[in-house]
Amino acid sequence: MTGRLALRGGAALDQVPVTLDPLTADGERTTRLSDGSGWFGFAHVEPGVYRLTLDLPEGVTGSPRTVVRVTKGRIAEAEFPLLLEVP
User: Fold this and answer.
1) Cα–Cα distance measured from residue 57 to residue 46, given in angstroms and rounded to the nearest whole number
2) What is the mean pLDDT of the chain?
3) Which of 59, 45, 67 is nearest to 13 (CA)?
4) Which of 12, 23, 49, 68 would bridge with 38, disulfide CB 3.0–4.6 Å?
5) What are 38-79's pLDDT values in tens digits?
């Protein structure tokens, strides 16, 4: 499972914790950090439904949760639209 965290204007969000929680599959909660391009990924995720939660940095607002379905043999992509920087 992969994704990219970016503000609406395109600026990447670096070092943001992304937590993966299995909802229908076996497994444990796992957290990864986004890299300098905003990319994050979780390898070897079992098929099932997962909730992803962001720990948004101060000054960023938006929906910090999404649900992703992982199917065997495919790379699932997570999306967090509408992340905004607030003054």
Assistant:
1) 29
2) 94
3) 59
4) 12
5) 999 999 999 999 999 999 999 999 999 999 999 999 999 999
Q: Say if residues 39 and 45 touch (Cβ distance below 8 Å).
A: no
Token couple for 36: 């300098």
Name 77's bridge partners.
2
Report whether 61 contacts 50 (CB < 8 A).
no
pLDDT score recorded for residue 82: 82
What are the domain boundaries of the chain?
2-74
How far, in Å, CA of 84 to CA of 66, rounded? 16
Burial readout 67-87 (b: 16 or more C-beta within 10 A, e: otherwise): ebebeeeeeeebebeebeeee
Domain 2-74, second-level architecture:
Sandwich (2.60)
> Is the entire prediction scored with pTM above 0.90?
yes
Beta bridge partners, 60, equal 85
